[in-house]
Known about the structure:
Elements: H1 2-21, H2 37-49, H3 63-74, E1 84-88, E2 91-98, E3 104-111, H4 112-120, H5 142-152, H6 167-175, E4 189-190, E5 217-218
Antiparallel strand pairs: 1-2, 2-3, 4-5
Helix pairs in contact: 1-2
Amino acid sequence: MLALSRVFRDKFCQGLKHMYLRGELVFAGGCAEFESWQNFVRLVSLMQSKAWEMYAKEPFAGAEQVFDYLGRYVHRVAISNHRLVSIDNGRVYFHYRNYRSANRPKRMSLKGEEFIRRFFLHVLPKGFVRIRYYGLLHHRQRKSKLKRCRELLGQCPDLPPADNEPYDLLLERLTGIDIHRCPICGSGRMLRQQVLPPIRLTSPQDVPRIAAFPIEVSK
């Protein structure tokens, strides 16, 4: 906790300095004296000289609950597939839980355009990433760091080149999951009918209307 307190203190004080230089701080009343750069720097230095108390509360159900909570949001956006019920007459029906009614599941429907608008509110803007790696797996140093680790462990410094096995066959060989098998009937084979080109959206209002494409299933 001591190391965390120092990191939080230094980053907080550094952020204050950046805000001061950008003119984002307003000093009024008894704080007017800190409008001077010399007085402000003296105040920040005094703050950094003190030991800050950092409190991080332990999760009620242990670390497993934290990983389970984060795992649901790391590889999913907005809503999971099992909550979707149907699409009928331009409306999307899905399940949700009402925490004000004893957490009972209920059903809601939205117009297709409104559903997509809300969905895109959870999509990160261009340039933002959901997961950031650090340490040995940091993107800029991952290759060199992992190579050095293998050298220290006496292993092959470079990984063997990956074979050209298709991803669907590789997934089925490693996990036993056939991504081409129909998840409804369990026997039909799903075939690709059309590839939709990517669409660059600048605002939720640019979301096009949903077009239904038939999916051919072979028995």
